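Same chain as my last thread, 341 residues:
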Amino acid sequence: MQASGPDSGYESRDKIAAEAARLLARLNSDPSAQDEAEICRWVESDPRHAVAFARAEAAWEAAERLKSAAAEVNLPPLEAIVSEEQQRRLSRNIMIAAAVAVMLFIVAAIVTVRTFSGVDHYETGIGQISDIALDDGSTLHLNSDSAAEVRFTDHGRKVRILKGEASFDVAHDRSRPFDVEARSAVIRAVGTAFNVRLRPSLVELTVTQGTVTVHSGNKLAQQISAGSGAVIQPRSVSLTHLDSRLIGQRTAWREQMVELDGETIEQAASEFNRYRAAPILIGDTRVSSLRIGGRFRITDSKEFLSALQLSLPIRVVAGQDGSVMLLYQDEPEPAENATGV
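reply #2:
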């Protein structure tokens, strides 16, 4: 069996899917050790190949959920349903389609087990920042409330960001590209440093050293160098030039700092809430649009809350559960009546 390597040009999405399906089917038919090695090389030769396998994993997980749901309502086995339906209505073509669908789910299950075996899982709690030394000499930095999976083989290095934010100092190894999966995007580096943040509707990339390439969906790869970033969405990759101030602001968490430069109070509170078990709440819409700047430690938001009261018409009220409410202060109150946190 021959597993095809990366094309000199860009493979079409359909071609990748077809090749992935062929190799997945081969995995399900008692492959030899050589077959498995060749399939592994194909998967790791191009970030889009890895994405195809990730989609297979998602399909399998969906199938498992359906299987569990069917069990909960005591549905009969699929074979019994199809057989009965065949006797009444189904044509031979529909039966074949059903069989193919079942086989694809089975193949996806095998791929999940074999492709993601040996995965290391890393996770941080709220308020925790972790620096993780990886086996290849790279370093994975995880921000608060973040999670990632790492899998290294002889042919490639892969990290999947599951939630939150991560920064990477990648050890140079041209024979083993370093791929980071972030939702629909795959970011590839050899020896470089970059930061990836999963925001609600997009992925925010900041490159601080070297160069990376970015694939998203079936778009052509885009190259992004140090001092630049990208806003990555399922159907687009928008490149942006970043000045040193903005890069420093985006990576300040590595020093356990939150850096603000004229952000609104709503934005600032949202940033601090990433590191707090009990949130900072805004109790007056007039507070939301006020702006503040400064550099504050993420481990202690008292300094930030004190700065709000000193520089802005804001009153800070502490809740019994540890939360904080920000209220608009029309007139200054006596110092003994103001509540700091």
